[in-house]
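SpoVT-AbrB domain-containing protein structure dump, as promised
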Amino acid sequence: MPVVRIGPKHQVTIPKEVFDQLHLKPGDFLEAISQGGKVIMVPRQLTAKAPAPSLTKKEQQILFQAKQKINRIQQTFSA
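structure tokens r here:
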């Protein structure tokens, strides 16, 4: 069983045999989990989030007014 050292920036090198067995590639993502005093690293694929829908002019106006109202309310609490 290979032993790895933690580097100064909290980095670890995955041993080549483990890297190859899991078919990992540079740039892949791993989820690091602390469980029962062990570190478990699980390969993960990140999916792109759907772009936020555009707001209509009316919705933008409502949002702007709501933000202004929130700011006014916050100012009354901080005064």
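The first strand starts at residue 29 and ends at 35.
lmk if u need the other ones
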